[in-house]
Amino acid sequence: MEPILKTMDLTKKYKNEIVVDKINMTINKGDIYGFLGRNGAGKTTTLKMIMGQTSLNSGYIEVFGENISYKNYQYKSRIGILTETPAFYPKLTAKDNLEIHRRCMGIQDKKRIAEVLALVELGNEGSKSVGKFSLGMKQRLGVARALLNSPEFLILDEPTNGLDPVGISHIREIILKLNKQRNTTVLICSHILSEIEHMATKIGVINNGILIEEVLYKELEEKNKTYLQIRVNNQRKAATILEQKCGISQYKVYEDNIIRIFDNVYEAENINKQMIDNGVLIRELKVNRETLEDYFLRLTGGEKSV
User: Fold this and answer.
1) What digits encode the pLDDT tens for the residues 196-216?
2) Which of 225, 192, 144 minimizes the C-alpha distance to 293?
């Protein structure tokens, strides 16, 4: 596999606080890498170091096989970048904003502006001043700008921010199409974990500045647990029945009277009978498999258990 991005012991401090702590990431050519973490976990700082927007304290970053720092910029001609809140000249049109970016990037093909505007469904809005754009339209224009140089490596920070469900679906389709047809490598941060779940081939989870997990998505699917979820009218009594009548110890209780059972998953009929016989009403009973959100919350200690 050809590494597009590789970091070794990447570290960033602000005063005496370590916000990124010896991160080792590897993104190979063709990956869609979902970079996950809570607010303040160190995601944005890591991206800023990769994009050359801030310096690092120690470690190194390789992009396209070359060691880079925030002072060099040659590698950026092969990268497309979308920041969480893209900035534009509000009094200029979408076309004019992209024209400025085209010249700054040294992109010769002037037709690319119309192509990328059409790609993000802003083809009819190119002559409107960006100050009149909605948040979602600005986000799509940010994606268009990131794609203007036909990048080999695309870095997207919250690309679906401000978009409605249709817009989110459209951005997802663009990313998947670029990845499939052009083998574009993508590093994507998003708090909408269900979207990452639909796209990512590899997952990296950062917590308190530490990369606590890096795993191929197909391996993650194997790790995720199957469980029986029940919703009851008396959670405490139901837990007692599970232990004393069903011999079940691997379970967890959640808000809204939900219990997830991780052993004897396929003995739903017996569990249901025991609950009824002992005066507990089951309002919901179904077999589920952990989602990416479940996995993320379990890794970072954020499960909404009671």
Assistant:
1) 888 999 999 999 999 999 999
2) 192
